[in-house]
Design a protein that fits this description.
Elements lengths: L1 H5 L2 H7 L10 E5 L5 H9 L4 E6 L2 H13 L7 E5 L12 E7 L7 H13 L1 E12 L6 H21 L10 H6 L2 E9 L4 E8 L6
Parallel strand pairs: 1-2, 1-4, 2-3, 4-5
Antiparallel strand pairs: 5-7, 6-7
Length: 205
């Protein structure tokens, strides 16, 4: 469905800042889906340990199969079938967190709790990559984005039981836990954004 509706636009968002985190050694990917980013991450970070969390066992199977088809061994990847809101991550172990097209699935309260939990599992030098939808501040692009968001939330609430009803901006929650925005790329008339955040202990990224 992603390829039919958006082609490679979402994948370009996912990998936009991957080269900026080439030194990552312990990676947490939340809500990976079918493994498109995971494959790129394995190639870009050939020695990193990766923990991949998804609430869908079927998506984890698709991700494993994609790795095998691409000739990438999954041995250094831990696949975890879990609800991210209740999964207990290890403390201060991850130097890279990735949440692509995932944080938009949560209400404000859920997002606050999720980011607080994951932030505790991130190192003092951790980076956080985010690709997601957003609502532009004004103009026709804003009305276009609002219409698209409404359709998306109606669909995913019906198809996947999504609890969120509107998009919540995660910036405040990230800043509360010491993350600073290093770079942001906005595309598709303001509909898509890709962020590279890092903690203050890592001023050069």
């Amino acid at each position: 469905m992603e390829f039919v509706l958006a082609g490679n636009k979402l994948q370009r968002c996912r990998i936009a800042f991957l080269a900026r985190v080439a030194g990552a050694r312990n990676v947490l990917i939340l809500g990976e889906g079918n493994g498109r980013f995971l494959t790129a991450c394995c190639r870009a970070l050939p020695t990193a340990r990766i923990t991949c969390i998804d609430g869908s066992a079927a998506m984890l199977t698709h991700a494993r199969d994609r790795l095998r088809r691409q000739g990438l061994a999954p041995e250094r990847i831990e696949f975890v079938h879990a609800d991210a809101l209740v999964w207990p991550p290890p403390q201060a172990g991850f130097d890279l967190v990735v949440t692509h097209f995932f944080l938009d699935c949560f209400s404000a309260d859920e997002l606050s709790r999720l980011i607080a939990t994951i932030a505790k599992a991130a190192t003092r030098e951790a980076a956080w990559l985010i690709a997601d939808f957003q609502v532009p501040p004004g103009g026709l692009s804003r009305f276009r984005a609002l219409a698209i968001h409404r359709l998306m939330y109606l669909f995913f609430r019906a198809a996947a039981g999504l609890s969120a009803r509107t998009l919540v901006n995660p910036d405040h929650f990230l800043q509360t836990h010491g993350f600073v925005l290093r770079a942001r790329q906005v595309t598709e008339w303001g509909l898509l954004r890709t962020d590279w955040w890092a903690r203050e202990a890592n001023p050069t990224g």
